[in-house]
Amino acid sequence: MLELRNVTKRYRAAGKAAVDSLDLTVEDGAIFGFLGPNGAGKSTTIRMIVTLLRADSGTIAFDGVGSTVDVAYKRLVGYCADEPLFYEKMTGLQHLSFIADIHRLDASTRKARIDELAGRLELGGALSDPIASYSHGMKQKLSIIAALLHQPRLLVLDEPMVGLDPKASFTLKTLLRQYAQKGNTVFFSTHVLEVAQELCTTLGIIDEGRLLYSGSFEQLRTLNGSQGQSLEDLFLSLTEEMP
Ligand SMILES: Nc1ncnc2c1ncn2[C@@H]1O[C@H](COP(=O)(O)OP(=O)(O)OP(=O)(O)O)[C@@H](O)[C@H]1O
Ligand SMILES: [Mg+2]
After folding, report:
1. Residue ranges per structural domain of the chain
2. Residue/partner pairs of 233-237 with CB below 8 Å, 24 or more apart
3. To test ligand 1's pocket by mutation, which of 7, 34, 44, 161 has the most ligand atoms within 8 angstroms of CB?
4. Ligand 2 centroid to 128 CA: how many Å?
5. This model's pTM is above 0.90
6. Residue of 43, 187, 192 best suited for mutating to test ligand 1, as the one with most atoms within 8 Å of CB
7. Ligand 1 centre and the CA of 55: distance in Å?
8. Is 163 exposed, middle or buried (0-12, 13-18, 19+ CB in 10 A)?
9. Which residue has a Cα nearest atom 9 of ligand 1?
10. DSSP string covering 86-128, please?
11. Nearest residue CA, atom 4 of ligand 1?
12. How far is the CA of 53 from the centre of ligand 2 (A)?
């Protein structure tokens, strides 16, 4: 279970909070979709969950392990960034081997996992090429494989569908569903409301750093007698009601 308690982050000491007193619980086996307008605070929240940023106040924990407990927490978490960065002179395989080294995966385990994931995402043929020669979507696939390599209990992805072709996007959705069905937790942000509606067991909607809603799509529809409305209608009305 992922737990965020009263998490606040300001980029400038005196400025408005990018994330403001966020309270959120995501259960094991959930696929949690994080929605919100541009600049709402999604990536900031995600970077705090994966320990790239430190919260000014509040706590984050997974399975009771606090995010400040460095290595023990990091072992539990896999992260696919919104704009992944690589050493572009490396080949895809060298990058994945480097990640596998960090997680101390043995030779047969890493080979089996790389073969399986690269096969499913159809990146196998390019793994011996330098990353500099990859398209945007190919880099995205590499980043997804790297995030999954150590089979993290919590998989965090920031807009993972961006740049993926329809087939890869379908494969990723299947992969995320299967991953969550094993009892892992998937936390991802997206602007594609159809994907959120189709894939997520739970949704969170954030705007101006504050969580407006957290729960299932069906629960959201029954709020304020809003049965029959699409997620787009609900999203727009929720995010436009902000003061
Ligand atoms: N490195 C930074 N320095 C200063 N302010 C930042 C920085 N990163 C983000 N912000 C500000 O924090 C707020 C939240 O940004 P964040 O990137 O978390 O939004 P987001 O929900 O991920 O948006 P998008 O949908 O566009 O990716 C915005 O007001 C943004 O301007
Ligand atoms: Mg973002």
Report:
1. 2-240
2. 235/35, 235/193, 235/205
3. 44
4. 31
5. yes
6. 43
7. 14
8. middle
9. 44
10. --TTSBHHHHHHHHHHHTT--HHHHHHHHHHHHHHTT-GGGTT
11. 11
12. 14
How far, in Å, from the CA of 41 to the mean position of ligand 1? 6
Take residue 136 and report the two structure tokens written for it.
């945007």
**Range 2-240 has CATH code 3.40.50.300:** yes
Pocket of ligand 1 (CB under 6 A): 11, 18, 36, 38-44
Q: pLDDT tens track of the chain, all 243 residues?
A: 999 999 999 998 778 999 999 999 999 999 999 999 999 999 999 999 999 999 999 999 999 999 988 899 999 999 999 999 999 999 999 999 999 999 999 999 999 999 999 999 999 999 999 999 999 999 999 999 999 999 999 999 999 999 999 999 999 999 999 999 999 999 999 999 999 999 999 999 999 999 999 998 888 888 766 666 788 888 888 888 644
Residue 84 token pair? 């992944």
